[in-house]
Write a structure and sequence with these properties.
By secondary structure, this protein is mainly α. The protein contains 18 helices and no strands. It comes from Larsenimonas rhizosphaerae.
């Protein structure tokens, strides 16, 4: 009987580092310092909340892919086809051409390249973004080499640079912990939890999971048990590495009030790094930002290209990736602040649904009727998620009754008003598991 192929230690480590690099992109570097800056002396409960959605849930997303035995289509298979298609489109558009993918270029430009241009023009920015996506598209057209290019070459360099930056931040903080912002005083954990949405890593985990599985298969590992084991290993390595990045960056923000008072999304880290290292810091930061954003852009282009090619088989993968790259350029030129402002309402509505899907996917093998559980839970979670999205877009002021209803929901003050409806839906789905099907057949698992 032939032995089961195994990954070498170097390949297994490269797999985990590739996963870390795919997750570590624009939002992972921009938002942790903001959390620390707002939380001030409450930095650690806020950081814990951020780690919950920025690390814990993405790792669970990787696990959900392994448990479900496939990509996002397999995870969403208990839902009606139309609902699964709409949900899948919402996720891929969010992490793809609408928000996350263009953000990799805007952050790379504003935090990595723009400081070297002095008085940069709009033409400089346009040419840089075009060049950024040209490189990302080229590497995305070689998906079979993804683990080698990213995991063995780019990521180790990125980690070395991040260790230097994190070590300097912890050893030489540029000030004491700042004061707590008024809106963070009552619920720093909840605020950090919600800011973790902005990384979009939990949404990406359901997409990147299939890239990880395919990378493992390309090394000759095909049996389900080994695929699951190595996928879980990749998620754990990525989670540990992400935590090692987030905590120092959050501490950076909490101690930034003297060197970067009132700094915006793309200004805090450059100001702090310049205070730590002087002009040399600009070079270090440019390398970190560019490598992190480029690896994430490659992963997103590859994942979205495969997804949309599956929906439109007559259009080649190559053509779709090129189209996505062009769309990325167009949207990125709108600017980082605009992208963040538009994405917040969408993510506020989408994240509660995605959290429920991932958690249910973990227990799916034990459900006799998974479709009933998924449908009931999401049906009750959806209205609460939509209310969160409307509130984030400041549209509830036009409907005082809806605003009052939202504020009356349990855990509204903690910004988790979707949780009780979700739990009620899960409870209803659990009851429905005990009702036999009319034809006495179990739903597809």
């Amino acid at each position: 009987m032939p032995s089961t192929p195994r990954l070498t230690l170097s390949n297994a480590l490269a797999l985990g580092l590739m996963t870390f690099a795919l997750f570590l992109g624009a939002g992972n570097l921009v938002f942790p310092p903001q959390v620390g800056q707002q939380a001030g002396t409450d930095v650690w409960p806020a950081a814990l909340g951020f780690l919950t959605t920025g690390v814990g849930l993405p790792v669970l997303g990787i696990v959900a892919v392994a448990v479900s035995g496939g990509g996002l289509d397999r995870i969403l298979s208990p839902l009606p086809r139309w609902a699964a298609t709409l949900f899948g489109l919402a996720i891929y558009l969010s992490i793809g051409p609408m928000f996350a993918m263009p953000r990799t270029a805007t952050v790379s430009w504003s935090m990595g390249a723009e400081p070297f241009f002095g008085q940069a023009s709009s033409l400089d920015q346009t040419l840089y973004i075009i060049g950024f996506f040209s490189i990302a598209v080229t590497l995305s057209l070689m998906p079979g080499r993804l683990v080698d290019v990213v995991g063995k070459w780019i990521t180790p360099l990125l980690i070395i640079l991040l260790v230097i930056l994190a070590g300097a931040t912890v050893l030489f903080p540029q000030g004491p912990l700042g004061s707590v912002s008024p809106q963070w005083q009552d619920a720093p954990f909840a605020q950090g939890f919600q800011h973790g949405y902005m990384t979009m890593d939990m949404l990406a985990s359901m997409v990147f999971g299939i890239l990880i599985v395919n990378a493992i298969r390309s090394k000759g590992v095909t049996d389900t048990a080994s695929l699951t084991r190595y996928t879980l290993l990749a998620g754990l390595v990525a989670g540990i590495c992400l935590s090692g990045v987030y905590l120092p960056l959050t501490y950076m923000g909490a101690t930034s009030h003297l060197v970067a008072p009132g700094a915006g999304s793309g200004e805090l880290i450059p100001a702090y790094v310049n205070a730590l290292f002087g002009p040399t810091g600009n070079v270090l930061l440019a390398a970190v930002i560019t490598l992190a954003c480029l690896t994430t852009a490659i992963g997103l282009l590859t994942a979205c290209g495969e997804y949309f090619h599956g929906l439109m088989e007559r259009v080649s993968y190559r053509t779709i990736v090129i189209i996505l790259g062009v769309l990325g350029v167009v949207v990125a030129l709108q600017g980082l602040s605009t992208l963040i402002q538009v994405s917040v309402p969408v993510l506020s509505a989408l994240y509660p649904l995605a959290i429920v899907v991932i958690l249910l996917s973990l227990v799916r093998p034990f459900l006799p009727h998974p479709g009933r559980m998924f449908n009931a839970a999401l049906l009750l979670t959806l209205p609460a998620g939509l209310l969160d999205g409307l509130a984030a877009a400041h549209l509830l002021d036009a409907w005082p009754a809806l605003s009052t209803f939202k504020e009356a929901l349990p855990l509204a003050r903690e910004q988790a008003d979707w949780l009780m409806p979700a739990l009620a839906g899960i409870g209803l789905g659990a009851i429905l598991q005990f009702i036999p099907s009319p034809d006495r057949r179990t739903e597809t698992a």
